[in-house]
Structures are given as C-alpha cells and as structure tokens.
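Exercise 7. Given the encoded structure of a 202-residue chain, write a plausible sequence.
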C-alpha cells in the first residue's frame, strides 16, 4: 500500500476550506441589520385666501413629541400605526430626498426633491382621511424648527434631515371645489426630523 504524500493529503481539505471561508464572510457581511428609520412630523393644513374648507390650520399628522423645545422625540418605523420610509442621499451639490411617514387617522406626509445645505424647492404632500390630501410642487424647504434655525451641524447629512416645509396654496384636486370650479387651495406646512434613513452609513 502506497501512502499519499503530505502534499496530496492536505491538498483536498484546503481546497474545500476556501468556499466555506467565503460563505462565512458573505454571511457576516449580510448579517449587518440596517438601523430602523425614525421620524418626528408635525404637519398642518389650513388658512390662506382661497382656503374655503379649512379656514384655520388643522393637524393632519403628528408623530413624536416636542418635550424638548430644541430637538423633538422621534418614533421608529413600525411603532403602532407609524410607518417611516426615507432616503437622504448625497448627490451633486446637495442631497436627494425621498421622505415619507404615515400615522394616526390616515395622516401622511411625503417630501421629494433635491436640496442643498441652504434648503431648496421640493414636492410636498400632506394628507389625512378626515380632511383630504393637499400637495404642491413648489414647497420651500428650510432648516428650521419651531420657527428657529436648526444648528448647521444638525440640519442635513447622509441619512438624516431636520427642517421645515412651507407650501402656500397647496391644492386638493379630488376634494371640494370653489364656485368657479377651481380646486380648493390651502396653506400647508410641516416641521420634521427623519433619521436612520437610507443614503447614510447605516
């Protein structure tokens, strides 16, 4: 009987070990769980010269709390009726935004667009099952909270944004119409804080 050489004896186990090592590495890479996105939203609609249905501002969506006057408390996606999906991704001279949150009474807020460190013009939509759905393609996004400027280091970064949108004359195309047949338009606004969004390092 001829015994295999040491080289022959160890060649096969080593060859089999490499796929196992790669599999372990792949599993380790895939096992990192992304952080759960969370948000604070305080969205209001009402007021404006053409707002015949909501003369005063009505709360369309409230997620989180403002016990801290400088930084609100957020709520993670999946808590109760709260759903949060958001992307704040570096792009060119600023960031591409896709922000969405929903909560009690069918309240929903969507903010989509491109902004810089100074803000920008975005599409905003604020809806509520009780009052309707108002949207505008010319909402102004600024880095403010409770009418005060957000510190620049907290305003926006990959995966996070803290600011305010103002949408004068937002329309509800499927809601009540004015006497002349034009859609009712109302002012809409929202303070918001989204964090742990896609586009960051999480």
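Solution.
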């Amino acid at each position: 009987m001829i015994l295999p050489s040491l080289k022959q004896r160890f060649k096969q186990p080593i060859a089999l070990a490499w796929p196992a090592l790669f599999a372990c590495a792949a599993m380790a890479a895939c096992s990192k769980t992304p952080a759960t996105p969370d948000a604070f939203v305080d969205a209001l609609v009402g007021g404006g010269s053409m707002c015949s249905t909501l003369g005063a501002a009505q709360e369309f969506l409230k997620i989180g709390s403002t016990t801290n006057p400088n930084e609100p408390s957020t709520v993670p996606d999946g808590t109760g009726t709260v759903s949060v999906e958001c992307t704040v991704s570096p792009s060119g001279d600023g960031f591409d935004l896709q922000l969405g949150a929903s909560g009690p009474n069918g309240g929903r807020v969507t903010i989509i667009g491109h902004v810089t460190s100074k803000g920008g013009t975005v599409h905003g939509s604020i809806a509520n099952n009780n009052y309707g759905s108002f949207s505008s393609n010319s909402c102004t996004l600024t880095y403010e909270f409770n009418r005060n400027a957000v510190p620049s280091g907290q305003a926006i970064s990959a995966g996070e944004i803290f600011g305010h949108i103002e949408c004068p004359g937002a329309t509800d195309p499927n809601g009540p119409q004015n006497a002349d047949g034009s859609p009712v338009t109302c002012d809409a606004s929202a303070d918001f804080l989204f964090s742990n969004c896609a586009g960051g390092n999480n």
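Remark. DSSP finds two helices and 13 strands in the chain. Students should compare their own answers with the one above.
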